[in-house]
Task: inverse folding
């Protein structure tokens, strides 16, 4: 039984702000989980095996060797096959149902969640929203993960919908591989900081693209002395993040800002992080965000980003086909672009030194001596996160 | 799917098959399969709750045999159910909507043209 299935069976799930589920809502979520497992099990394997055979026989290339340039040709070749069509349809429908089911459940308890948010006591954090905030065009163009409304959705004052739907939905999306605190990325990022940058003692930390604070709150535990800031683009996700943090007793200063251009002072942070943010941005936004990170860090400060471990340059063409589905069918238009971005070069261009780019084994405790260590070698399974970071020059940013 | 007032998803609807109707139909069937799964879970909850509170159990349900009258009534209900579910396919097989009928557009045009028929 997966962690999620275990959690789904508990009387009070996850944390105080987590949307709860009636019997039928649980049954619907369990159905989506089964449907996704089937789609990404037998149906996915059938698609990948057919793809592999067609590459070997039809494209004059061995599927054993990476060939990122073949990506689009392989996709066009496979789109007309029943295997790809049925797999795609089942996966897309599972994703549509996921948001439909979770959205309906959250709407049912909207008033209760707003009361819960209002009752959470202040732990020293804050929430700063910007009524004039404009979503970056790459986030306005589509709804990420086809979650209706996307990250930027907000229906008005007090609205928690996007945050609550994202929190519940993300746990389902990962097919039970995460717990309901969804904190593996945060622990993994903390492990990367240890492995690549030694014992940091940051006093001021910024988490970019925090959504509901899954990774942010983990940092509070690893760096209890630090003042922690977190930014995202959506008012609703931030309202929910703030309430969730207060209920969990963490002090975080949330604000509604774009990672490309923040209103924080130059040189005012010791550590800037993000987790799974870059694939939601754009080719043009990557250098802008790296430059903003460099501006925000004091000399010698550390930047550390975690991303999905999907790197097309190291993958079989048939595996690229499977992963690239996200780019075209799941509201993730920069997924493939991110998987082909040279993040070491992006860090270097922004002036970062002592760069460490590679794979961090996913872990649930960075202090666990048995956990895996940072390595330049890894694979696209979610046993790893792709991590990249460096230090701002001692003489100040570029 | 989404009701009035709920956010809807930006962007083109997905199409994977050669015909958009096939995409729509498979999506509908999978959604229905979900509701059937939920119903099965709910029925099971009834049996478990009943058994745990001294009522009938799953084994009682397994052992239950309808008498002839109930079997006949169920048969009629099942027939009607199947006719309803397969109604559109049957209508197509029987050629309804074809032959000597006017297209709806023509009827709309006739009744709104102001020309007495």
Result:
């Amino acid at each position: 039984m997966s962690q999620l299935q275990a959690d789904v069976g508990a009387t009070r799930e996850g944390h105080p702000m987590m949307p709860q589920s009636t019997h039928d809502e649980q049954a619907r979520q369990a159905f989506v989980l089964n449907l996704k497992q089937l789609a990404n099990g037998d149906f996915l394997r059938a698609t990948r095996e057919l793809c592999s055979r067609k590459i070997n026989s039809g494209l004059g290339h061995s599927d054993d060797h990476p060939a990122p340039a073949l990506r689009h040709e392989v996709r066009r070749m496979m789109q007309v096959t029943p295997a790809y069509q049925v797999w795609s349809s089942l996966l897309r429908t599972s994703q549509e149902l996921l948001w439909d089911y979770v959205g309906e459940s959250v709407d049912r308890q909207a008033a209760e969640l707003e009361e819960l948010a209002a009752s959470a006591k202040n732990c020293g954090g804050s929430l700063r929203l910007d009524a004039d905030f404009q979503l970056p065009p790459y986030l306005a163009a589509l709804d990420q993960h086809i979650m209706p409304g996307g990250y930027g959705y907000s229906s008005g004052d007090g609205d928690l919908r996007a945050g609550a739907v994202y929190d519940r939905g993300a746990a389902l999306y990962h097919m039970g591989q995460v717990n309901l605190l969804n904190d593996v990325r945060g622990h993994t990022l903390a492990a990367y900081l240890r492995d690549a940058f030694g014992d940091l003692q940051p006093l001021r930390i910024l988490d970019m693209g925090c959504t509901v604070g899954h990774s942010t709150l983990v940092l509070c535990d690893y760096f209890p002395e630090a003042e922690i800031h977190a930014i995202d683009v959506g008012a609703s996700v931030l309202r929910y993040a703030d309430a969730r943090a207060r209920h969990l007793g963490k002090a975080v200063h949330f604000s509604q800002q774009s990672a490309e251009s923040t209103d924080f002072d130059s040189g005012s942070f010791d550590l800037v992080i993000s987790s799974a943010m870059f694939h939601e941005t754009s080719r043009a936004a990557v250098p802008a965000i790296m430059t903003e990170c460099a501006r925000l860090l004091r000399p010698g400060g550390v930047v550390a980003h975690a991303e999905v471990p999907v790197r097309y340059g190291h993958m079989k063409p048939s595996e690229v086909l499977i992963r690239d589905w996200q780019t075209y069918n799941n509201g993730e238009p920069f997924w493939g672009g991110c998987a082909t971005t040279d993040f070491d070069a992006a860090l270097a261009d922004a002036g970062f030194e002592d760069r460490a780019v590679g794979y961090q084994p996913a872990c649930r405790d960075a202090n666990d001596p048995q956990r895996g260590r940072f390595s330049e070698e890894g694979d696209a399974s979610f046993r790893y996160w792709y991590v990249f970071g460096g230090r701002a020059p001692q003489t100040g940013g570029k | 799917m989404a009701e009035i007032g709920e956010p809807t998803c930006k962007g083109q609807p997905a199409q994977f098959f050669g015909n958009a109707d096939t995409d729509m139909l498979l999506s509908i069937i999978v959604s229905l399969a979900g509701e059937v799964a939920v119903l099965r879970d709910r029925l099971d909850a009834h049996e478990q709750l009943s058994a745990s509170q001294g009522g009938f159990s799953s084994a009682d349900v397994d052992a239950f045999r309808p008498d002839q009258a109930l079997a006949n009534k169920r048969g009629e209900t099942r027939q009607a159910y199947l006719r309803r579910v397969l109604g559109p396919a049957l209508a197509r097989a029987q050629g309804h909507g074809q032959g000597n009928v006017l297209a709806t557009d023509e009827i709309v045009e006739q009744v709104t043209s102001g020309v007495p028929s």
Q: What stands out?
A: Residues 5 and 11 of chain B are 18 Å apart (CA to CA). Residues 20-52 of chain B form the longest helix (33 residues). Chain B has a mean pLDDT of 83.
